[in-house]
Amino acid sequence: MTTQMTYVQWHRNLLDWCEPVGDCVEWQGPTLKAKTPLVYVPKGFVLPQWGQYRQSARVVLWALFHGAPPPAGSVLRVSCCNDKCVAIEHMFVMTRAKAPVEQAKRGELSTPKRKAAAIRRARSRETKLSVEKAREIRSSCESSTVLAPRYGVSKATINAVRRGKAWPEAANGASVFNWRPAA
User: 0.85 exceeded by the pTM?
Assistant: First the structure.
């Protein structure tokens, strides 16, 4: 015979996963990608409209404390930069549009892993120009207005190739040892 968990048991388990660490209250329960604290919410335990599924522990604790979840179109962030923190005092509501700006201020968007992924994506892209085409552009006497439609690129790209800003490896005498400081 299976017994259903009562609200009191669930709430006690929820609080058991919270451990004070300094000013923070760290989540010791399950997480999503080792960052976002998660909790299983039985149907109707927090809000009547919530179904039975996993939910962000921060959103659940916010809803229990404030009586309502954060407004639609917003996210909960913590001021302490601790991914595991679920302290109500550290939580604040932010619009989804402002979240990336705040993440950039914290340096969360400029990680080495993210930069490496951007470089990988850039290298794997199909380009309209090749080294041979860039050399043809450099040696051509025609204007960028004539060359741009021919190669399917903008006039600015044609001019960048001619100045050596784009496709510098296509320049005559190009070498890994020929470099110039950025202007």
Answer: no
